[in-house]
TrEMBL record:
Pathway: Purine metabolism; AMP biosynthesis via salvage pathway; AMP from adenine: step 1/1. Pfam families: Pribosyltran (PF00156). Catalyzes a salvage reaction resulting in the formation of AMP, that is energically less costly than de novo synthesis. Homodimer. InterPro entries: Ade_phspho_trans (IPR005764), PRTase-like (IPR029057), PRTase_dom (IPR000836), UPRTase/APRTase (IPR050054). Its main location: cytoplasm. Belongs to the purine/pyrimidine phosphoribosyltransferase family. It catalyses: AMP + diphosphate = 5-phospho-alpha-D-ribose 1-diphosphate + adenine. Keywords: Cytoplasm, Glycosyltransferase, Purine salvage, Transferase. It comes from Gordonia rubripertincta (Rhodococcus corallinus). It is found in: Cytoplasm. The lineage of its organism: Bacteria, Bacillati, Actinomycetota, Actinomycetes, Mycobacteriales. This is Adenine phosphoribosyltransferase.
Length: 186
């Protein structure tokens, strides 16, 4: 699926039409792109969910949504694909035991977690979903975390890929040949 398919065109149109641009946030010189209006619009949300689901490469058994907007998107994509959804949580939100993966942010480090008990992820084919791809650190951590649990991440789908931050290249270097797809440039 790409922007040339009907779901891709509809999603791109909704993103372009509804995304709120905020100058000088969170710092001077940065234009923040707020997807809240896209997700709050029923037709926009439906188009984004269909577009993200279109990136599922072959059969997937599970959709993993990254904290926090990835939860919203992942749930919709999972319903669209008739699969389950797994919330990839920030550290400290799940009871033990958990699988944990640390990653570097521009201002420090953080961790993502998934349950280490109650789920058998061995060999499960996973579509990883998030709202925005920037530097790639969060997505790389999610892929590593899923692999640690025995899952097989097969594709990564995001609503928007921010230009010039190197996220796609970082993912390709760290994760190998997992397909990375975005509905819109940022």
């Amino acid at each position: 699926m790409n922007a040339q398919t009907q779901p891709g065109r509809e999603a791109l149109s909704a993103i372009e039409r509804l995304t709120r641009k905020v100058a000088d946030f969170p710092a001077p010189g940065i234009q923040f792109k707020d997807l809240s209006p896209v997700l709050a619009d029923a037709a926009g949300l439906r188009a984004v969910i269909a577009g993200l689901a279109g990136f599922a490469e072959g059969d997937v058994d599970l959709v993993a949504g990254i904290d926090a907007r990835g939860f919203l998107l992942g749930s919709g994509v999972a319903l669209h694909l008739d699969t389950g959804v797994l919330a990839v949580r920030k550290a400290g939100k799940l009871p033990p035991p958990v699988f944990t993966e640390a990653y570097t942010l521009e201002y420090g480090t953080a961790c993502l977690e998934i349950p280490a008990d109650g789920l058998d992820l061995a060999g499960v084919r996973v579509l990883v979903v998030d709202d925005v791809l920037a530097t790639g650190g969060t997505v790389i951590a999610a892929v590593n975390l899923l692999r640690q649990a025995g899952a097989v991440p097969v594709a990564i789908a995001v609503v928007m890929e921010l230009d010039g931050l190197g996220g796609r290249a970082a993912i390709e270097q760290a994760c190998g040949d997992i397909e990375v797809s975005a509905l819109a440039p940022g």
